[in-house]
From TrEMBL:
Superkingdom in the source lineage: Bacteria
Entry's Gene Ontology BP terms: cell division
Protein name: Pilus assembly protein PilM
Domain SHS2 span(s) in chain numbering: 24-192
Organism, as annotated: Sapientia aquatica
Pfam family, one: PilM_2
Range of residues in the leader sequence: none
Length: 368
């Protein structure tokens, strides 16, 4: 399930165009980069990857999911648009989970959409620690309530107006029109659900843990039968390794980040810096799994998937698998997709895990 956060916010694609499958790009604005994905419908209605690209953000342009420098972020978006070669102007953007309050509520069944909106607004005040005129609300009907089939279970989502408006404004500054706003964790789940469906027996009854290891944060989601049963964020990411490189070799942060990605660091880097970081990362993963076991009724994980920009560090996959004793894989959100001639397959294999959220945002084109 994915939320537009758009029904009560104004323009979203279906209402604007009256058409389905309108061209739409997904843009993921993280703390360190802007990532773009454009998908289309290929042969046999399979998804086709048309374009993807990434552009770094200046340090300080984003902080804790907030846009601190509008012009710098817009300039990075303009550059990623140029690099990708896309001509699409409508964009799906994501909000960090920490900026969105979500809550499942039960409402009276048999109501019209207008009536449901009124009920949602009435109920929202119980769950949102802000005045309702300071937030944007949206909701999505999940289905009949589990213990009351005549009623409906609804997912309520709310975020501060300024956080949404900042993202809409930065898109406009870059020459785009924001037509869908999603939650980043929901976009990631949409992308991984497609991969799970391709696994044996469609992943039925398999408990799957997704670790999105970014620059500053690791987002953990545990999924069972296409439902997220657990979510958590941990303050751990690739910037910790970059800072160690800065201290050890006297480089600027930008130089250290580039050399880390290109594997151009002095002899001894692996033993002194990389291997301790990988062990620490694996320890963070095992701690997260133990916390999941102690705070939920579940006692097993069947599969670990790693994603995010820091997941592709050489050796991380093996270290996590060895420490957890659980089947572990890097996830490519583009698995099974047709690739356009614009896409370099070898380069894509190395970069794909960092595009999970951007891919999920781009997939919203087909949800309208």
């Amino acid at each position: 399930m994915a939320l537009d956060l758009g029904t009560l916010w104004g323009d979203f694609i279906a209402s604007v165009t009256g058409k389905k499958n309108t061209p739409l790009i997904g843009i993921d604005i993280s703390s360190t980069s802007v990532k773009l994905v454009e998908l289309s419908e290929g042969a046999n209605k399979e998804l086709r990857l048309e374009r993807y690209a990434s552009e770094p953000l200046p340090r300080g342009a984003m902080s804790d999911g907030n846009i601190e420098n509008m012009e710098q972020v817009a300039e990075s978006i303009r550059r990623v648009l140029s690099k990708s070669g896309t001509k699409v102007k409508k964009v799906s953007l994501g909000m960090p989970p920490s900026a969105v309050i979500t809550k499942k509520i039960v409402l009276s069944g048999g109501s019209t959409e207008e009536s449901l909106e009124l009920q949602v607004e009435s109920e929202a005040s119980q769950y949102i620690p802000f005045a309702l005129d300071e937030v944007r609300l949206d909701f999505c009907v999940i289905g009949p309530a589990p213990n009351s089939p005549e009623d409906v279970e609804v997912m309520l989502a709310a975020s501060r107006k300024e956080k949404i408006e900042d993202r809409i404004a930065v898109a406009e500054l870059a020459g785009l029109k924001a037509t869908v706003m999603d939650i980043e964790s929901y976009a990631a789940r949409a992308a991984i659900s497609r991969i799970i469906e391709q696994s044996e027996n469609g992943g039925k009854d398999k408990i799957i843990a997704l670790f999105q290891i970014g620059a500053k944060m690791t987002h953990i989601s545990v999924i069972l039968n296409d439902q997220t049963v657990y979510e958590r964020e941990q303050a751990f990411g690739g910037n910790q390794l970059t800072q160690e490189i800065v201290r050890s070799y006297g480089l600027s942060f930008e130089e250290a980040e580039l050399k880390k990605k290109s594997d151009e660091l002095p002899e001894g880097y692996e033993e002194d810096l990389l291997n301790p970081f990988l062990e620490n990362a694996a320890l963070e993963v095992t701690r997260a799994i133990q916390f999941f076991f102690t705070s939920t009724p579940y006692t097993r994980i069947d599969q670990i998937y790693l994603a995010g920009g820091s997941s592709v560090l050489s050796g991380l996959l093996d270290v996590v698998a060895n420490r957890t004793k659980i089947s572990t894989a890097l996830i490519s959100p583009f698995k099974g997709m047709e690739l356009s001639p614009n896409v370099k397959e070898k380069q894509l294999r190395n970069e794909a895990p960092s595009y999970l959220v951007a891919c999920g945002l781009a997939m919203r084109r087909f949800d309208q």
